[in-house]
């Protein structure tokens, strides 16, 4: 890796620990105004300084995040389909490399849909993006999106992650699954996990802990943080697992205590002083 690539990559995956807490708020690019992300500025504001990096589209970045923020940006640059459209896998590259540079992106993110109707197109998108990223020293995060008919098992996810790495992705995002260690072992670049649909907080913390135990380098988590009733408490609990190796019980206690403190402060505003 040249200096620029290495420098940007170190803003995404912490070089000392090899871990990361990426906050995903890119869901609107195909889902529209998802629950609790209807107003991205409001959702992002309390979490921005608690995330190691923020994953989002240029539209939400420009409209909803202060340009004075120091949180590294993972710019989603694939899209072109919607939840009500023909096929979710029909994606193209929607943001130019020049725009990514202007926006000071530390990383580019793009989905691949292995086994889907548009597999070839999405793998071509990834190859093209890696070529562009290499020119300017910007790493690429490949998102292994799963079609409705695809099983989220180690065989399939391992296939998708390995293909992403072979095509040059610098980091890969996938889902945790049974035998996840095999997925990580078969992928020569760091693997991070998506949180997926909203779970009870304790379950989401367990998922985080299990994924790290099985070799994940961290999380790219969205709904399980900002759809929680206490997103700040939740991101702190996730951070503590990823960066401080605390147990799930300890992390859940941290979540509960921070949530209680918040509710006490709401009831008695004078307690803030
Ligand atoms: C999905 O395509 C998006 O890229 C999300 O960034 C990703 O799924 C992570 O978010 P969540 O933890 O909500 O699944």
Can you characterise this structure?
This protein has 12 helices and 10 strands. It is α/β, with parallel strands linked by helices. The protein has one domain: Alpha-Beta Barrel (TIM Barrel). The strands form 2 sheets. It has an 8-stranded parallel barrel, surrounded by 6 helices. The chain is globular. 44% of the residues are buried. The mean pLDDT is 95. Bound molecules: ribose-5-phosphate. Ribose-5-phosphate binds next to β10 and α10.
| CATH homologous superfamily assignment | Aldolase class I
Structural class, by secondary structure, is alpha/beta
Q: Unreliable stretches, pLDDT < 50, 5 or more residues?
A: none
Tell me the span between the first and last alpha carbons. 49 Å
CATH class group: Alpha Beta
- Shape label: globular
Radius of gyration: 18 Å
Written as H for each helix and E for each strand, in order along the chain, the element string is HEHHEHEEEHEHEHEHEHEHHH
Give me the number of helical elements. Answer: 12
Please, what is the average pLDDT?
95
CATH topology: TIM Barrel
Task: Tell me the number of strands.
Answer: 10
Main sheet makeup? 8 strands, parallel, barrel
